[in-house]
Design brief:
The chain has one domain: Alpha-Beta Barrel (TIM Barrel). It is 34% helix and 19% strand. The protein contains 5 helices and 5 strands. A 5-stranded parallel β-sheet has the order 1-2-3-4-5. The C terminus is likely disordered.
């Protein structure tokens, strides 16, 4: 089995007449398909149900709602659990505090990005890339 080394990020696959066929072909070639900005714009539950994706990247607005209490946070929590239980890997965007990092970790997110984890830096200033694992 070939190791997957490339990712394709998809916000809206409406540029193709039959995007699921195109995405399945890319998956057979070793690409990992990510549904980007889930919960905003065109990245809806319908896309998740119809498109062959591997990763679901929760939009920053959905992740930020986890910092609050109430119905919206409960909805996002349950949605994340449901999507994870269906076999998808989850990515949390906009992690800006340790508390939020701990919350998405507890919910089963496998990937996270945001200022708390690392701020953008010019590539020329990088000698070694260091990744902090979420465990």
């Amino acid at each position: 089995m070939r190791e997957k080394k490339a990712f394709l990020r998809c916000s809206s696959c409406t540029v193709f007449s039959r995007p699921e066929h195109f995405l399945n072909r890319l998956r057979r070639e070793g690409f990992t398909i990510a549904l980007d900005d889930f919960g905003s714009g065109y990245s809806s539950l319908r896309y998740l149900l119809c498109m062959p994706v591997d990763l679901v990247k929760f939009d920053i607005s959905m992740v930020r709602s986890l910092d609050e209490t109430g119905r919206q946070a409960l909805f996002v929590e349950d949605l994340a659990r449901m999507i994870k239980d269906a076999g998808y890997k989850l990515v949390a965007e906009g992690i800006e505090s340790e508390a939020l990092l701990q919350r998405v970790t507890a919910l089963g997110f496998s990937h996270a990005k945001g200022f708390h984890i690392g701020r953008p830096v010019p590539l020329t200033s990088l000698r070694t890339v260091s990744l902090r694992a979420v465990s």
